[in-house]
């Protein structure tokens, strides 16, 4: 990172804030306000790549020229279908029913925009859910954790009880792949 620069995280996700603290000691949080509606026939990987870049660009446009802006977006992909954040408990219930007993992909796009230019990466991991009984789904929705989470679950919280296995970057599944973010920022890889 350039010596006079400062980092801005273009996200309101508390999970991304906590993860970024592992790489950068001091940064500003300035959420991007963009339309996150998928484009017609947009595949999940293109979707997170586009949104990460749009978020970083939007915040960079209103930031100081020394800013290094990080934008990120995560989605759950089941057979090419984008599972974003649930609109309500019924939506969360339906997502969890569809994910039950299946393996899905979690894609996170990470973009960095600065005076030096733009760079974007997409990281993918896989998660396999247990066969979820209706009462397990109701218990999980009752925790309140499904709100605001792509795919209606948080693997780092109570949602771990829904998961049979995962493969790939855990920080990606949580919402900010640290190794790739460090590379984009020109920092040493996290330990």
Task: Give the helices and strands, then pairings.
Blueprint: E1 6-9, H1 14-20, E2 27-29, H2 44-61, E3 67-78, E4 81-83, H3 89-99, E5 103-114, E6 117-129, H4 134-142, E7 163-167, H5 170-174, H6 178-185
Question: Would you summarize the structure shown here?
Answer:
The chain is α/β, with parallel strands linked by helices. It contains six helices and seven strands.
Written description of the protein model:
By secondary structure, the protein is of the alpha/beta class. The protein has one domain (about 5-185): Alpha-Beta Complex (Maf protein). About 30% of the residues lie in helices and about 25% in strands. It has six helices and seven strands. Strands 1, 2, 3, 4, 5, 6 and 7 form a seven-stranded mixed sheet that branches. Helix 3 (about 90-100) crosses helix 4. The chain is globular and about 55 Å long. The chain starts with 5 loop residues before the first strand and ends in a 6-residue tail after the last helix.
């Amino acid at each position: 990172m350039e010596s006079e620069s400062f980092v801005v995280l273009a996200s309101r996700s508390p999970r991304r804030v906590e993860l970024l603290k592992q790489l950068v000691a001091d940064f500003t949080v300035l959420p991007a306000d963009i339309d996150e509606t998928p484009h017609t026939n947009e595949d999940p990987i293109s979707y997170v790549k586009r949104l990460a870049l749009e978020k970083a660009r939007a915040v960079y446009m209103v930031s100081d020229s020394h800013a290094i802006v990080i934008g990120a977006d995560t989605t759950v992909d089941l057979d090419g279908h984008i599972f974003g954040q649930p609109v309500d408990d019924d939506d969360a219930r339906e997502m969890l029913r569809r994910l039950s007993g299946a393996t899905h992909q979690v894609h996170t796009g990470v973009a960095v925009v600065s005076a030096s230019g733009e760079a974007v990466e997409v990281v993918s991991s896989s998660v396999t859910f247990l066969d979820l009984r209706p009462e397990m789904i109701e218990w999980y929705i009752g925790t309140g954790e499904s709100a605001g989470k792509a795919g209606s679950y948080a693997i780092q919280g109570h949602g771990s009880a829904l998961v049979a296995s995962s493969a790939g970057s855990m920080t990606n599944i949580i919402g900010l792949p640290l190794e790739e973010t460090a590379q984009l920022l020109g920092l040493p890889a996290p330990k």
